[in-house]
Design goal:
This protein is mostly beta strands. The protein has two domains: 39 residues; 224 residues, Porin. It is 14% helix and 62% strand. It is built from one helix and eleven strands, in the order H-E-E-E-E-E-E-E-E-E-E-E. A hairpin with a 5-residue loop joins strand 7 and strand 8.
C-alpha cells in the first residue's frame, strides 16, 4: 500500500515538473516571437505542390509538336525569415531554405533532334533522331531564395528576387520510338525503329549541379497565422553541363508552386 502511494506521489511530481518545463519553454518561445515581431522579424514555414516543366525557350525547330504532358507529383517544403523595414513595414527582405522536386513527363514529335541512344547490347549510338521521344524529368533540389517583399495591404504582399539551387538528385531519361536515327549526321547511316521497337536514353549524368533563376510570388493572409501563396520560379541557366552537346539547345526549369504557409 505504501509503495503504491509512493509511486503515485513520484508520478505526480514528475508530471508537475514536466508540465512546468513545457509551460516555461512555451512562455520563452512566445517572448522570443514577440521580441522578433517588435524588431521587424517574421518567420514562416510553407508547403505546396509544383506544376511546370523543363523546356527550351522558344521551342526550337527540331521539336515539331508536344503530343502529351504530365506534371507528376512535385512537393516543396520551405522555412524562411523576413526582416521588415521602417515604421510601416511595407518593404522587407526574405531568406529561406527550400526542399523541392521538379518533375514532368512529356512526349513529342521531333526532327533531326540530337540523341544518344542505348542499343540492345548496351552500347551507345549517337546521331540525329526523327520520330517520337518520351522524356521523364525528376530532379530534387536544395534551394535558397533571396527575395524583396512589398506589402500591398495588410493581407496581400508580393515578392521578387533570385534563387540558387543545388541538385541533390537528378534524372533526365526516356526512350525514342516510331522513327529513325541517322548517325553521325542527317546524311549518315539510317537506323529504323518501328512498332514495338524502342531505344532508351539517359542524360542524368550530364545534369548541372548548381542552378539559379528568378522567383516571383504573391501571398494572401487568410487568417492570423495561415497564408496562401503562389510562387513562379524561372531558371536562367541551362540544366545541362556546359560541355554537354548531344542536345544542341538550352533547357530551363519553369515551375509554379502553390500552397499554404504558417506564420509564427
Amino acid at each position: 500500500m505504501k509503495k503504491t502511494i509512493y509511486n503515485k506521489v513520484v508520478g505526480i511530481v514528475f508530471l508537475t515538473m514536466l508540465f512546468s518545463h513545457v509551460a516555461y519553454a512555451q512562455n520563452e518561445r512566445n517572448k522570443a516571437l514577440i521580441y522578433s515581431y517588435l524588431h521587424g522579424w517574421e518567420y514562416s514555414i510553407k508547403a505546396g505542390l509544383s506544376i511546370g516543366g523543363t523546356s527550351p525557350l522558344p521551342l526550337p525547330k527540331e521539336i515539331r509538336s508536344i503530343d502529351s504532358y504530365a506534371p507528376n507529383i512535385a512537393i516543396a517544403i520551405e522555412g524562411n525569415a523576413t526582416k521588415w523595414f521602417g515604421n510601416d513595414k511595407k518593404w522587407g527582405m526574405t531568406a529561406g531554405i527550400r526542399l523541392e522536386n521538379k518533375t514532368m513527363t512529356t512526349e513529342a514529335t521531333v526532327k533531326n533532334y540530337g540523341m544518344k541512344i542505348i542499343n540492345t547490347n548496351g552500347g551507345e549510338l549517337q546521331g540525329l533522331w526523327t520520330g517520337g521521344v518520351k522524356t521523364k524529368v525528376k530532379n530534387s533540389y536544395l534551394t535558397i531564395p533571396l527575395l524583396a517583399n512589398y506589402k500591398i495591404s495588410d493581407r496581400w504582399k508580393i515578392s521578387l528576387g533570385p534563387y540558387f539551387s543545388y541538385m541533390t538528385e537528378g534524372s533526365f531519361s526516356g526512350h525514342v520510338y516510331e522513327g529513325h536515327l541517322r548517325t553521325p549526321d542527317e546524311t549518315g547511316q539510317r537506323v529504323d525503329f518501328n512498332g514495338e521497337s524502342i531505344a532508351t536514353y539517359d542524360f542524368s549524368d550530364n545534369l548541372r549541379k548548381f542552378q539559379w533563376g528568378a522567383q516571383l510570388g504573391g501571398e494572401w493572409k487568410a487568417f492570423k497565422h495561415l497564408n496562401i501563396y503562389a510562387d513562379l520560379t524561372w531558371g536562367l541557366n541551362d540544366i545541362f553541363k556546359k560541355d554537354f552537346d548531344t542536345i544542341t539547345f538550352a533547357m530551363y526549369p519553369i515551375y509554379l508552386n502553390i500552397g499554404f504557409g504558417y506564420a509564427f
